[in-house]
Design a protein that fits this description.
single chain; 277 residues; 2 domains; five-stranded parallel sheet; two-stranded parallel ribbon; 11 helices; 11 strands; globular
């Protein structure tokens, strides 16, 4: 995180900014939706308006597709979580096809074998969920070890898609903070670390030198042993609070005045949005 701060200084955003939140299950706040880091940042900054376009499994190219909606909204700041959805390793598509045909519905799809992020408060139901989740994780580790796996997006495609997204943000003068890579429990997400390390390098390379982009790698911001829910991946409320606080370290709030708000000493700025009723 400190590297991101030192690279170009904090991003300047106007007081009571209009904030757009994009990305995958991290940004959507899976398991703790009303306490997601994007909502925390918006509340902390007294956001005038917030546009949430984040959902589980949404990849970076799908975020780029949201740009027409963002243009209508007119954000002062864009927050996006990306990298882990594209980088996690899943069992082979053959295994997915077999499970789709013969397996329980809850085992199907590319995340069907993932551990549960949270469990029922009912004792009996919770015990059943814990057992099922454990069996899924053991099975996933076994089939990936024996037959390998795949990720939803290749490294080359991820580089292309993220570059396009960042270019679009720059062209429109929208400051963007990327919540990037963390390293969840290796047992629950087998064979994923090396893939995530490559995506982390891609993110750092693409953000370096960009005037309106900052990268916030999650590794070191949250402890994936204590700041996550039961799946060792999705942050708890306390984890989201740490991520929100780390975002603030990348931002400088300046008074909103008529005209433009310059970014990092540039004459290019943000067009001030009017109040919404």
């Amino acid at each position: 995180m400190q590297d991101a701060v030192d690279a170009s200084g904090p991003l300047r955003v106007p007081a009571n900014p209009r904030i757009a939140v994009l990305g995958d299950s991290l940004a959507s706040g899976l398991g703790v939706r009303e306490h997601s880091y994007g909502r925390m940042v918006a509340k902390d900054l007294g956001a005038e308006a917030v546009l949430f376009k984040a959902k589980a499994r949404r990849m970076v190219d799908e975020c780029t597709e949201q740009i027409p909606r963002l243009e209508k909204f007119g954000p002062d700041l864009v927050l996006i979580s990306t990298g882990e959805t594209e980088g996690f390793v899943h069992p082979t598509r053959l295994i997915e096809q077999v499970l789709t045909k013969y397996g329980p519905k809850s085992w199907q799809g590319d995340v069907g074998l993932d551990a549960r992020p949270y469990y029922s408060e009912d004792r009996r139901k919770r015990a059943k969920e814990l057992l099922t989740s454990t069996v899924k994780v053991v099975f996933k580790n076994l089939v990936i070890r024996l037959g390998g796996g795949y990720s939803r997006m290749s490294h080359d495609q991820y580089r292309t898609e993220l570059a396009q997204f960042l270019d679009a943000m720059e062209e429109r003068g929208w400051p963007v903070v990327i919540a990037g890579i963390g390293y969840p429990n290796a047992l629950l997400y087998p064979r994923s670390r090396r893939n995530l390390e490559v995506i982390d390098r891609i993110q750092r390379e693409l953000v370096a030198g960009r005037r309106l982009a900052r990268l916030l790698p999650l590794d070191g911001v949250i402890d994936f042993r204590t700041d996550t829910q039961s799946d060792g991946c999705h942050p708890s409320v306390a984890g989201h609070r740490k991520i929100a606080d780390a975002h603030h370290a990348l931002l400088e709030v300046v008074p909103r005045v008529a005209g433009l708000i310059p970014q990092q000493g540039s004459q290019v700025g943000l067009e001030v949005q009017g109040k919404v009723s």
